[in-house]
Amino acid sequence: MPIIAPSLLSANYLNLAADCEMLNASEAEWFHLDVMDGKFVPNISFGPMIIEFIRKTTTRVCDVHLMIVEPERYAEAFKNAGADILTVHVEACTHLHRNIQQIKSLGMKAGVAVNPHTPLSLIEHVIGDIDLVCLMSVNPGFGGQSFIPETLRKISDLKKMIQEKNAPVLIEVDGGVSVHNASSIVQAGADVLVAGNAVFKSTDPIQTITALKKM
Ligand code: DX5
Ligand code: ZN
C-alpha cells in the first residue's frame, strides 16, 4: 500500500488547525509541506515559521519539499522547525552531493526532487546517498494542475535504477494525483503519493485518503 502524503498547500490557512486535525484522524502517514520562494518557482508559499506551527499539531512525518534556490542556506532552519524529510530540487543545486550530506548530517532524511523535463541520469550517482526521490508529475509552483502522463514511464525507469543499485529509496510522485490515476501510478512503482487538491477539495477528505491508500 502506498504512503499517502497530503499537500497542505491546498489547506485552509484561516483554519489550519482543523485541517491538521483532519489529517491526524486519517490514514495519511505524512504531511507534505511545499515551500516556494518566488524564484525557483513563480509562486511564494510559506517557510519554517508555519512548519513549526504545523509540527506542533502532529506526530506524523513532516515531509518538506523545498522549491527554493540555495537550499543550503535554510536546511538548519527547517530542521529546527521540525522537518523529518528535507527534499531539494536537483535543478536548484549546483553541488547536490554536498546538499544531501548537509541534510543527513543535520539528522534528517534526504530527498531529491526532479522536474518533469529533467533526466533521471542526473541523480544516478547520488541514488545510494538518498532516502527519497520526488518525481514531479507537474511543473512545480501550484496545486491543482493536471498529471503529466509521461511520468508513468519515468516512475518505472526510476524503479529499475533503484533496483539495479539495490538502494532503499522511496519513489514519491507529486502533482495531479487523484483517485482516478493513483492506481496506475502505484502500479508503475510509486511508494508515496502526494495529493493536494484531490484531498482538500474533496467533499470527504478522510475517505479520499482511504481510497488513495487502497490503490
Ligand atoms: C506543486 C507541489 C505539490 C502540489 C500538489 O508545486 O509540489 O505538492 O501542492 O498539489 P496537487 O495534488 O493539487 O497537484
Ligand atoms: Zn510538493
What does this structure look like?
The protein has a single domain (3-213), classed as TIM Barrel (Alpha-Beta Barrel), CATH 3.20.20.70. By secondary structure, it is α/β, with parallel strands linked by helices. Helix 2 packs parallel to helix 3 (75-81). Helices cover 33% and strands 20% of the residues. It is globular, with a radius of gyration of 16 Å. It contains 8 helices and 8 strands, in the order βαβαβαβαββαβαβαα. It has an 8-stranded parallel beta sheet with strand order 1-8-7-6-5-4-3-2. Helix 3 links the parallel strand 3 and strand 4 (85-89). It binds D-xylitol-5-phosphate (DX5) and zinc ion. Residues 7, 32, 34, 65, 174, 194 line the site of zinc ion. The site of D-xylitol-5-phosphate has 22 residues, from strand 2, strand 8 and helix 7.
Key descriptive features of the protein:
215 residues; binds zinc ion; globular; alpha/beta; TIM Barrel; binds D-xylitol-5-phosphate; 8-stranded parallel β-sheet
What is the fold's blueprint, element by element?
Blueprint: E1 3-6, H1 16-24, E2 30-36, H2 48-57, E3 61-67, H3 75-81, E4 85-89, H4 96-105, E5 109-114, E6 132-136, H5 151-165, E7 170-174, H6 182-188, E8 192-195, H7 197-200, H8 205-213
Parallel strand pairs: 1-8, 2-3, 3-4, 4-5, 5-6, 6-7, 7-8
The structure holds D-xylitol-5-phosphate and zinc ion (ZN).
> Which fold name corresponds to the CATH topology?
TIM Barrel
Structural class: alpha/beta
Helix content: 25-40%
Number of strands: 8
**Main sheet strand line-up:** 1-8-7-6-5-4-3-2
**Average pLDDT reading:** 98
Q: H/E element string?
A: EHEHEHEHEEHEHEHH
The CATH architecture can be given as Alpha-Beta Barrel
Bound molecules: D-xylitol-5-phosphate, zinc ion
